[in-house]
């Protein structure tokens, strides 16, 4: 049957060039030191990067590197034999498990086909099959119609199929060979050594919607999960990618059938035979060894052994492919050839205050530290250098972060080892940077982070006065659900600010009393360091308030939020303080407006949504009359709209009697206020997008609805048609962008389709679509964006055309394309 790894197409269509070492690592028997050893323990692989970890040792396998680094080299043997100066209790904090559970060989695998593409294709009956198929595709490519602009999807598909046929190492090459042979052809193997089933391949070749395929697959995955575990012991269904291969491998070896043939029917057979089901926690998570083995089974191998098959093989960056498959950072040729840390960069950093050490001392420290940075005495050497040159150890943290930003990989490696050695030597600043960066990147379980975590914890337990260390350790306690210990750290950090306040002189207290912000910041705080700004007393107040609001500890969370908001003027605290109050209450509006004005993106979105409500929505969703009045009577004035709407045009009063004029004026003033309010909401959405440095699909929906509403108001008050058409075209542009986007939430997709369907009933919809098409086809681009000035000029030229009647003449454009 066909392998699941062979029929699952990668989302970005990156064809993986499968390659493997001559040694079959998957089915290799483990080397044990005793006959009664458990499989998977006390074994040693040939690859040093895949050696199993042992509980309680200090050499657990590194995970994702915390900071940019080049490929790691093996440490010297003398450094591995050094005793661990840290207590052995750190293994309780690490997430070390056995690297493998079941070392039985996978049944039904042709090992010769793994490394030899000729055996995989098995073309003894028809040796000219590949050449003949490539010639057919070349003929189709030659006959394919050409057009100006990007290639058509049909032509791209032909080129992709040709490349897949030509490259015998392509992951999908065996599928095309098997399908071309037919149901009675010779056996074909995938790049993992499993025989392909023609009927499965033919089913995969048929076009099928993604939703249908995924829905069926999800149902079968759910049933397999229920069968494998005992009642109530199964993990979450959303974690299938983590445990799916594990349970299929277990069933495959229990039944003695190939791994790729195991699916729902085989699970039911496994259950009927009475195999023992798994308990809670078993097979729920892959170890590093099992994850690498899964990649090998799926055909993602590391080394290539066989030569290119023919002249059609594509050139690929093999070094990049190998680095990414090994989980290492790819170092390009330009990076390798870039210069080492220039002196000009050090001088500029010294001038800007990013480092406090003189550049000549930095150069000397780095020159003498680099030869010993991988040795066991690197920390001692660093301390001796700092003592001889009169440099504080904590000041090397800024130097290390500066080297991490270098383009040369050797500089980044040097900066990483400098920070690690400084942390081992006792630098709390380096420890805070390493642990904070690892926490931000969710890689705290890396082996190189074990000692910095121990150093941070021991410093806090020893009674450090560093606020950043207390807050960071409190966050680590919170993540491990040790809420009392976390609250204790946050309270100590908060108390340090109060203790400093009581020890200040009368002059400092007087300056603070008259309003100057003096004495509230921690003396260890350095505003140049992002980790210091993110781990100050404000963060301690916010984290403590979060624990209190979630009822994880006792206390009133709003009091801590008020301190962080009112005393430190923190935007995030204002936003959280608003969230504590009832939504759309007057207190909510005050705090949310303060957070939005301070630049907090989520608060900007909340204010924009409030301003975008219609009068009916305001009465339904906003109970406070003061908030309603603020929204409807807001005095905000935007020059783009305000200068032209003080008095309506004469066309607005056409057809009305003298008695209707006051009513018309009242209606006009209401329309102008609504127009300004919608424009204000658009401005808040734009500010939030700029703040977040991205434009979400929800923003496209909001822009589409607001622009269409503004066009309705402009049409009602008889404003020039070019303004009405401009806003309708802008609305459709956002709506079309949302409809054609792939990464859209399902609920938003359904809701937007209902709303946008109402646009089609409008008498100006077709005209707006024609305007948008012409704008996209003929309008010039300015920095990858459409030129709005060109659109307004075009719309002014057709102002005399009645609304809803203009159509775009495409003949002229087609003739230009033909030329």
From TrEMBL:
Protein name, entry field = HTH cro/C1-type domain-containing protein
Classification via InterPro entries: Cro/C1-type_HTH, TPR_rpt
Source species, please?
Venturia inaequalis (Apple scab fungus)
Q: Where is the HTH cro/C1-type domain?
A: 378-396
Q: Which regions does the record annotate with the repeat TPR?
A: 467-500
- Domain of life of the organism encoding this protein: Eukaryota
Q: Where is the composition biased (Basic and acidic residues)?
A: 58-81
Region of interest called Disordered, as start-end residue ranges on this chain: 1-124
């Amino acid at each position: 049957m066909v392998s699941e790894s062979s029929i699952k197409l990668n989302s970005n269509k990156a064809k993986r060039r499968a390659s493997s070492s001559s040694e079959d690592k998957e089915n290799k028997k483990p080397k044990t030191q005793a006959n009664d050893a458990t499989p998977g323990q006390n074994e040693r692989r040939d690859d040093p990067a895949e050696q199993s970890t042992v509980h309680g040792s200090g050499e657990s396998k590194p995970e994702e590197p915390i900071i940019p680094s080049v490929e790691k080299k093996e440490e010297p043997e003398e450094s591995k034999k050094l005793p661990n100066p840290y207590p052995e209790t750190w293994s309780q904090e690490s997430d070390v498990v056995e690297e493998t559970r079941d070392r039985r060989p996978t049944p039904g695998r042709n090992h010769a086909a793994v490394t030899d593409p000729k055996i995989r294709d098995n073309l003894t009956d028809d040796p000219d099959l590949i050449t003949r198929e490539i010639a057919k595709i070349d003929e189709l490519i030659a006959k394919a119609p050409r057009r100006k602009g990007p290639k058509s999807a049909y032509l791209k598909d032909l080129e992709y199929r040709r490349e897949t046929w030509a490259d015998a190492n392509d992951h999908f090459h065996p599928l095309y060979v098997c399908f071309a042979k037919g149901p009675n052809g010779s056996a074909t193997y995938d790049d993992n050594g499993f025989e392909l089933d023609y009927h499965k391949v033919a089913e995969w070749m048929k076009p099928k919607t993604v939703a249908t395929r995924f829905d069926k697959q999800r149902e079968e995955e759910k049933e397999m999960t229920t069968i494998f575990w005992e009642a109530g012991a199964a993990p979450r269904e959303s974690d299938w990618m983590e445990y799916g291969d594990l349970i299929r491998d277990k069933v495959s070896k229990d039944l003695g059938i190939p791994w790729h043939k195991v699916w729902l029917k085989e699970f039911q057979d496994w259950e009927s035979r009475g195999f023992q089901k798994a308990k809670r926690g078993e097979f729920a998570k892959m170890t590093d060894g099992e994850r690498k083995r899964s990649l090998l089974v799926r055909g993602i191998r590391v080394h290539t052994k066989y030569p290119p098959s023919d002249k059609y093989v594509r050139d690929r960056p093999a070094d990049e492919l190998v680095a990414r498959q090994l989980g290492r950072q790819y170092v390009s040729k330009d990076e390798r050839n870039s210069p080492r840390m220039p002196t000009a960069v050090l001088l500029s950093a010294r001038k800007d205050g990013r480092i406090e050490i003189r550049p000549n001392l930095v150069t000397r420290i780095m020159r003498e530290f680099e030869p010993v940075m991988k040795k066991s005495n690197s920390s001692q050497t660093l301390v001796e250098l700092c003592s001889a040159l009169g440099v504080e150890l904590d000041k090397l943290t800024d130097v290390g972060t500066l080297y991490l930003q270098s383009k040369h990989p050797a500089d980044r490696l040097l900066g990483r080892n400098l920070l690690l050695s400084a942390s081992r030597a006792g630098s709390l600043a380096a420890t805070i940077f390493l642990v904070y960066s690892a926490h931000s990147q969710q890689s705290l379980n890396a082996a190189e982070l074990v000692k910095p975590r121990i150093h941070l914890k021991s410093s806090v337990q020893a009674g450090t006065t560093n606020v950043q260390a207390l807050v960071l350790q409190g966050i680590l306690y919170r993540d491990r659900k040790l809420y009392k210990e976390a609250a204790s750290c946050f309270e100590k950090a908060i108390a340090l600010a109060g203790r400093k306040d009581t020890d200040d002189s009368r002059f400092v207290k007087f300056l603070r009393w008259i309003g100057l912000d003096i004495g509230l910041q921690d003396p260890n705080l350095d505003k140049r360091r992002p980790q210091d700004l993110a781990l100050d007393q404000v963060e301690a107040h916010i984290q403590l308030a979060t624990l209190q609001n979630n009822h994880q500890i006792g206390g009133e969370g709003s009091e801590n939020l008020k301190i962080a908001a009112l005393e430190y003027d923190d935007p995030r605290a204002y936003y959280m303080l608003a969230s504590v109050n009832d939504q759309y209450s007057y207190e909510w509006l005050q705090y949310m407006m303060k957070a939005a004005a301070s630049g907090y993106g989520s608060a900007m979105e909340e204010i924009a949504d409030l301003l975008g409500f219609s009068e009916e929505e305001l009465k339904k969703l906003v109970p406070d009359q003061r908030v309603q009045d603020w929204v409807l009577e807001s005095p905000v004035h935007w020059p783009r709209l305000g200068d032209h709407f003080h008095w309506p045009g004469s066309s607005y009063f056409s057809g009305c009697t003298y008695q209707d004029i006051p009513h018309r004026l009242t209606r006009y003033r209401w329309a102008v206020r609504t127009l300004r309010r919608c424009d204000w909401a658009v401005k808040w959405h734009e500010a939030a997008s700029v703040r977040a440095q991205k434009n979400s699909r929800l923003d496209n929906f909001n822009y589409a609805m607001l622009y269409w509403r503004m066009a309705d108001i402009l049409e009602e008050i008889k404003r020039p048609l070019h303004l009405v058409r401009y806003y309708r075209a802008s609305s459709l542009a956002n709506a079309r962008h949302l409809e054609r986007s792939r990464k859209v939430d399902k609920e938003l997709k359904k809701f937007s389709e209902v709303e946008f369907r109402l646009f089609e009933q409008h008498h100006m919809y077709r005209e707006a679509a024609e305007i948008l098409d012409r704008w996209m086809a003929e309008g010039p681009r300015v920095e990858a964006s459409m030129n709005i000035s060109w659109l307004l000029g075009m719309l002014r030229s057709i102002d005399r055309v009645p609304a809803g009647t203009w159509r775009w003449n495409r003949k002229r454009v087609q003739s230009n394309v033909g030329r």
